[in-house]
């Protein structure tokens, strides 16, 4: 089962094979002696299928079944997919047995090709497991939690670090269980990324980043590993140790909050995850070396939690964050998460938290990114960045040219964010940073 779940559906041979088979099926079904009756029934099948696709599109957008509104591009893919399925269905009648067999086979093939095409448009889910929101267990051996020599105070880690000859070229990834000891939250397994420098015999004391992906989604390290490996390769094997934490669970979006409906997601990230890191990872304790990050809905969770705990998280990297949690289904969040209490909901928005705590963020270095073509979320992201700046965060807003909210937004945004905060973390040439204190 794990082998099936780990099949790559974003790039690789599988999409090519599926598209080729789908094209062959469509070509065979088209190559038939035309009659008025066949042309008419084919047209009816295609139009009926397209109508179903249109209905799915509007129902999904009305109910926010996929977390937000589907784009026009997805509509066209749905119309094409469902139209092709309708065409295959009408070939089940008035045909020889072998055509019926091929038509029957074509239905799931067309559906699979359409699903892979829609996934490719969003560019987030790399495997079958990712698309289904399932975390495939990949246990990882973690380095011992011990003290090590910290870099000299007058030097950054980058300037003092000399990679050993046997340092791996790439990071190591796997999964761990982070229990909801305080929160009781039922989280999926978390992903862990150990950069090359963390895998040597006497590793340096590295920063740690808790990163949260969007909704719907899965806390899989696979989605950001190439970006982290590229960053490490450009910085002598140095990069943060990354914990991809699950702020969603197995249900609907908890909207970065504690609630009776969806569980204590906020307490899980703010209390349980940091406690687990202190007990299990070789990292420092200074806030500057603790990074909170996220993408999309995970990005706004990062901003909210960093705003609540500036003495814990000294660095923030938010990639295309929404303006506030559940911005696309605000009515549901207000009703389900806050019990219909509009005042509590408003007070719990990141901008409100930042405003209440203005002046407490002098020690926080923040990077927020947005795509210049992100018309849906970009304006809200900029307002959120303005609120963080006004509250006193040392914040840089990176606008990624030609990028929207999907596709390259995650990889390019995370790269820009890490490059922005790297000097203050000691991971790149820049101003000297204080030595971190080793964890107990």
How are the SSEs ordered, and which strands pair?
Blueprint (H helix, E strand, L loop, with lengths): L1 H4 L7 H18 L5 H28 L8 H19 L6 H26 L5 H5 L24 H4 L11 E5 L13 E5 L13 E5 L12 H9 L7 E4 L13 E2 L3 E2 H16 L9 E6 L1 H12 L6 E5 L10 H7 L5 H6 L2 H7 L8 E7 L6 H14 L2 E7 L8 H17 L15
Parallel strand pairs: 3-4, 3-7, 7-8, 8-9, 9-10
Antiparallel strand pairs: 1-2, 2-4, 5-6
Which structural traits does this protein have?
alpha/beta; 10 strands; 440 residues
At a glance:
With 440 residues, the chain is an alpha/beta fold. It is 44% helix and 11% strand.
What does this structure look like?
The protein is an alpha/beta fold and about 450 residues long. The protein has 15 helices and ten strands. It has helices at about 1-5, 15-30, 35-65, 70-90, 95-120, 130, 155-160, 225-235, 265-280, 295-310, 330-335, 340-345, 350-355, 380-390, 410-425; strands at about 170-175, 190-195, 210, 240-245, 260, 265, 290-295, 315-320, 365-370, 395-400. Strands 1-2-4-3-7-8-9-10 form an eight-stranded mixed beta sheet, with helices on both faces. Strands 5-6 form a two-stranded antiparallel ribbon.
Major sheet: 8 strands, mixed
Calculate the mean pLDDT score and round it: 90
Q: What is the H-and-E element order?
A: HHHHHHHEEEHEEEHEHEHHHEHEH
Structural class: alpha/beta
